[in-house]
Specification:
Elements lengths: L2 E2 L10 H7 L1 H4 L10 H21 L6 E4 L2 H11 L9 E4 L4 H12 L4 E4 L9 H8 L6 E3 L13 H5 L8 E5 L18 E5 L10 E5 L13 H4 L7 H36 L6 E2 L10 E5 L5 H10 L2 E2 L1 E2 L2 E3 L2 E3 L2 H5 L4 H4 L3 E4 L6 H17 L2 H6 L2
Bound molecules: pyridoxal-5'-phosphate.
């Protein structure tokens, strides 16, 4: 099996998460809305998980709305909480995940006023440029991702939140990549709503949450009374239990995890920077401890990825393939990186199942590929 180095895409489930979920997969599991003993057991499991999530995030349990993941959480926020009839703007950024950008496009197509802030060349939303657009704009919503999934760059959410009137403007952050990797305490942050996903922190895929202490104007999914009428449908009990366990582990391990991941990243980056011409995007500004987004100028990203895959390393590129055409990352484009370099981008995202040796061996393999790749691959970047 390959060494898995793509934890920002999804992370393997923690063994204790699997153990916690097992009884809810193997045995008869009641519907949490049922009054009999099975139902009561399921309800109690869901509420314990809610309390764990609330403890990790420093919020009330009542604020936690379980969803199918980060995408649904963002959609619920953007479609359920904004005033569609209002001309008051929604302010977000060009470097959001598609789970924010796509619903924003829909809102824009419906006539809403959406303003997207630009990043600076380091990949942080540019505060100077933002000031004139945000201050006095009478925005109804400010939605800024906490840490970018590609670069890992942590965004100046607090400084941006200080530019709006929080009595009338909701501040939301898509913290899908941050939660579980860096400390995140809502009681200390000027943020009213947060989206995140279990599978980025060692929980199962297909479950996440929107955390917000208000009722939506309308539910995104209407049906039963579940989640206090904010999200209808029978709860994903096993998934929610898994999310609760992952949240508990993240709370207990966060300091150690942060230090451990940083050690791997620093070891890798020290070796990477020894390769002539290597570029690390977002270097020099605060980044997630596990993420390196980099490019080697004369080596096409997808080609290197295939070589690395063959050599037993699983990583992601920074480009998206649409209709057989490879496009550079929208994040790098917004940062002003030229398309040729952007098409070479590769993302390494470490996890707790990686060792220092994995980081060293990956860097050594890159060096070896650079030394030995045939000229045709060198030309591919041209
Ligand atoms: C920043 C960010 N937001 C949202 C999502 C979507 O999460 P999910 O796949 O759980 O819907 C992701 C997933 O990569 C992400 O990185």
């Amino acid at each position: 099996m390959s060494v898995y180095l793509d934890h920002n895409a999804t992370s393997p489930m923690h063994p204790e998460v699997i153990e916690a979920m097992m009884p809810y997969l193997q045995n008869p599991v009641g519907n949490p809305s049922s009054l009999h003993s099975y139902g009561r057991m399921a309800r109690s499991a869901v509420e314990s998980a809610r309390a764990e999530v609330a403890q990790l995030l420093g919020c009330d349990s009542a604020a936690v709305i379980f969803t199918s993941g980060g995408t649904e959480a963002n959609n619920l926020l953007l479609k359920g909480y904004v005033d569609h009839a209002s001309r008051r703007p929604i302010i977000s950024s060009e470097i959001e995940h598609s789970a924010v950008l796509e619903p924003l496009k829909q809102l824009q197509a419906e006539g809403m006023n959406v303003v997207l802030l630009k990043p600076n060349p380091q990949g942080q939303v540019d505060l100077e440029a933002a000031r004139s657009l945000v201050t006095g704009a009478d925005a109804q919503l400010l939605s800024i991702l906490y840490a970018n999934n590609e670069t890992g760059v942590i965004q100046p959410v607090e400084a941006l939140a200080a530019m709006v009137d929080r009595d009338v403007c909701l501040v939301h952050s898509d913290a899908t990549q941050a939660i579980g990797k860096i400390p995140f305490d809502l009681s200390q942050l000027p943020i009213d709503a947060v989206s995140f996903s279990a599978h980025k922190l060692g929980g199962p895929q297909g479950v996440g949450a929107l955390v917000i202490n208000r009722k939506p104007r309308q539910a995104l999914i209407s049906g039963g009374d579940q989640e206090n009428r904010r999200r209808g449908g029978t709860e994903n009990v096993a998934g929610i239990v898994g999310l609760g366990k992952a949240a508990q582990i993240a709370r207990l391990e966060i300091t150690h995890k942060q230090q451990y991941l940083l050690q791997l990243r620093e070891s890798f980056e020290a070796r990477l920077t020894a390769i002539p011409g290597s570029v690390i995007f977002g270097q020099g500004v605060p980044r997630l401890p596990n993420t390196t987004f980099f490019a080697l100028p004369y080596y096409h990203g997808e080609t290197l990825l295939m070589e690395l895959d063959r050599a037993g390393f699983a990583l992601s590129s920074g480009s998206a393939c649409h209709s057989m055409v490879t496009e550079p990352s929208h994040v790098l484009k917004a940062m002003g990186v030229d398309d040729t370099l952007a098409l070479n981008a590769i993302r390494v995202s470490f996890g707790m199942d990686n060792s220092l040796q994995d980081a060293e061996q990956l860097a050594a393999k890159l060096q070896e590929l650079v030394d030995r790749l045939p000229p045709v691959i060198r030309q591919a970047a041209g």
